[in-house]
Amino acid sequence: MENLDYARLQMAFTLGFHIIFACIGMVMPFFMVVAHHKWLKTRDPIYLKLAKAWLKGVAIFFVTGAVSGTALSFELGMLWPEFMKHAGPIIGMPFSLEGAAFFVEAIALGFYLYGWKRLPEKFHWFTGIIIGVAGVASGILVVSANGWMNAPSGFEYINGEFTNIDPVQALLNPAWFTQALHMTLAAFVATSFGVAGIHAFQIFRGKNVDLHTKAFKIAVVFGAVTAFLQPISGDLSAKDVAKRQPVKLAAMEAHYETEKGAPLYIGGIVDEENRSVSNKIEIPKALSFLAFGDFNAEVKGLNDFPDDELPPVSIVHYAFQIMVGIGTLLMLAGLIYFISLKKKNWLKNKYYWLLFIIIAPLGFVAIEAGWVVTEVGRQPWIIHQIMRTEDAVTPMPGMKYSFFFYLFLYTILAITVTWLMNRQIKSLNQQPQTKPTKNKLEQTFSNQDKPRGVKSSGENKIDD
């Protein structure tokens, strides 16, 4: 089992890194084009500075996403040869189309990077939109391939052989839409609140407040809107899972007994040995309604499935609770932002900015938890009800060395990206500074309420 354990660890570790790079790379181009559009409309140099700064971030995450994604493609063949032997001809289409989307994204990024003052302004701006759309398309296609693992289709499985392959049907498998929608919205929520939190931290420190306030507003609007849409996609995903993978639904809710009018558990400590859940809050009949749209619908419990087909219930349940809890918290943060549009005095309160600083990384925690639910919840299958994970792993010995090598490689990559992004943030803060006032945050936002041309002594000016 050592090979299987290390192969799983390596895949989980590298995918956990790649998904962060990929999500940021998908979403940041949209911040960039919004800032660019505002520059074209207002000619405010702050927006131009923002667009160019975010462009550098897009380029960094494009490269790191490409590197980490390429490593994952090698891992599929190296770690899971039996899986690729059978699945490759079936799900080759989404991977090849993803390569095409990546190619378009790379070309558009080249135009955008080197098009300043060389291309017509509107066409140059439009190439930025292509970067974002191609990035989202790339992510959707990869998620479609993962959806096929949860809802295999587009083939006939006869006597252990995959025949009559239809790659289009495999691409448009029953799980692709709900998974892609949920993942895309999650990427926007996580990246938006993450970027907003970084700029909130700079505002909290009193660094180039005008610029970071404009950046914060662009990012947080994306985050707040998508956070409100996320529960809708989550409901669609849950109903889809209830129909296709009832054992995964039961593990998500740690629901052991089959019953009609099943309650929804909030929290709870799972005891897998005794098959029970303690210290939970129960909402009567809520699980039946959320899963099937009927308060009295029957929900099948874990006790009615074979023991060798049960996923690790505690891991799946806790990951699901973390994902839902963080999603709810980020939705509340979005609501607070919209209220603050009316209550301008909130912007002068340091705790307002501290809130967005604290929640900045939580969206990415929720993404990781969501992928644990998706992948661990499917176990012991690598292809649901078709191929077990243990039957797909490589027989090659020494997988632990490969794992530790990738651990080292991705740690170096993460440190490099962090250093590069920190350098970008510092470059945004470079400006002539006047002597700060005692309450610089309140001073700055008070000045923003004054008519144009009216300044206070000690006002924090931004040089562009």
- Please state the structural category: mainly alpha
Poorly predicted runs are 432-438, 450-464
Count of domains: 2
In this structure, how is the largest beta sheet organized? 2 strands, antiparallel
Distance between the termini: 60 Å
How many DSSP helices? 15
Given the C-alpha coordinates, what overall shape results? Answer: globular
Radius of gyration: 24 Å
How would you describe this structure to a colleague?
With 464 residues, this protein is mainly alpha-helical. The chain has two domains: 2-239 and 330-421; 431-464, no CATH class. Helix content is 69%, strand content 7%. The protein has a two-stranded antiparallel sheet. Strands 3-6 form a two-stranded antiparallel sheet. A hairpin with a 4-residue loop joins strand 4 (264-271) and strand 5 (276-283). The longest helix is centred in the N-terminal third of the chain and has 41 residues, at 2-42. The chain is globular and about 65 Å long.
Question: What is the topological layout?
Answer:
Elements: H1 2-42, H2 45-79, H3 81-114, H4 121-150, E1 156-158, E2 161-163, H5 167-171, H6 176-204, H7 209-244, H8 246-253, E3 259-260, E4 264-271, E5 276-283, H9 286-292, E6 298-299, H10 313-340, H11 350-359, H12 362-376, E7 381-383, E8 387-388, H13 389-392, H14 399-428, H15 440-448
Antiparallel strand pairs: 1-2, 3-6, 4-5, 7-8
Helix pairs in contact: 1-2, 1-4, 1-6, 1-14, 2-3, 2-14, 3-4, 4-6, 6-7, 6-11, 6-12, 7-8, 7-10, 8-10, 10-12
Task: Put the structure in a nutshell.
By secondary structure, this protein is mainly alpha-helical. The chain has helices at 2-42, 45-79, 81-114, 121-150, 167-171, 176-204, 209-244, 246-253, 286-292, 313-340, 350-359, 362-376, 389-392, 399-428, 440-448, and strands at 156-158, 161-163, 259-260, 264-271, 276-283, 298-299, 381-383, 387-388.
